Amino acid sequence: MTPRERVLRAFRKLDGYPDRVPVQFELCRQLLDYFGDKLGIPAHYTDNLYEDVTYRISGNEVRTAMGCDVVVTGAGAASNFTPKKFDDGTWLNEYGMRMKQGDIYVEVAEYPLAEVHTASDVHAFSFPDPHAAGRYDDARALVEKYRGDYFIIGDIEVTIFSLAHQLVGFEKLLLDMALGAEYLEPLFSACADFQIEVGRHLVELGVDAFWVGDDFGSQTDLLMSPQMFRDLLKPHYTRMNVELKRVNPDVIPILHCDGAVSKLLDDIYETGFEVFNPVQPGVPGHGPKELKDRFGDKFVFWGAIDQQDLLPNGTDEDLEADIKEKIDIIGKNRGYMISPAHIIQADVSPERVEKFIELCKKYGRYE
Hints:
Largest sheet: 7 strands, parallel
CATH class: Alpha Beta
Number of domains: 1
Helix content: 40-55%
Number of helices: 15
Distance between the termini: 15 Å
Structural class: alpha/beta
Order of helices and strands: HHHEEEEEHHEHHHEHHEHEHEHHEH
Strand order of the largest sheet: 1-6-7-8-9-10-11
Strand content: 5-15%
Shape: globular
Oligomer: single chain
CATH topology: TIM Barrel
Number of strands: 11
């Protein structure tokens, strides 16, 4: 069974059970380089417009050799773009965000729309060119290489809500959402317009699914009220799914959304998303049985393995028990792809990465 067929059966797009639950994972640069050296396969990096997404869409040749059933690709930097670098180590990316390297992820040091107040301020802002030369060269090459054998996802994370707060500032955006600022509708619409064009390119290239990424939850609850989501954001995700389904009716819409967001899952389903990722564990409403019982007829689940504490700090026995539980519950009757809930970071040893893959394949077999 090819990895692509395995995923399509698990996602209930083909009749019959897969031979096992499909496995997916992403690795930080240190781990990608380690395994690339170990396997003798140099990791290829695709620089995304938003730096952290680079590690979602890079090193596919390494990850597939390790046993990943999925190839993830996305938009790269424009051929003519060179980031402006400053003496303090910060730099400007294609969005005009002044970036700095945090302890693990990059952070925005200066927001290009920090002073936005009106619709005119939004209209005056120039988004990167979604059609720029070179932007999809790596995506095209990956689709040509892996099409038909591996399940290929086109990643357009940092999509609407997350892109907006990386442009405006997180606290300002949430406060202005509560106050009903006039710039919100044109800003969310502009973010959606830009990312729909990125998604259109990827779907036209032939990806099997597109992956939207915005976080609506914290470790304990939603970042906004359900009604605020329905009024300000839901129409844009619905429009995105409709537009990209017009390009290919068979393409699968996936939402990555961190945090405790079970209160929004009915609304998220109504926008057209078919797969929910990363099924962040350990937050309210995300118990495996609760999610499978409540939403298993609506969503395929992808993720659910804790990379915050379990992978770096838990014992092999803890990891084994968790993987077995998630497969037994979420993977019952298909509808599950197992994965860590985020990119595996350097605090996880290479040996634990290998143990994770081994255990997923050991317990993922359908009898």
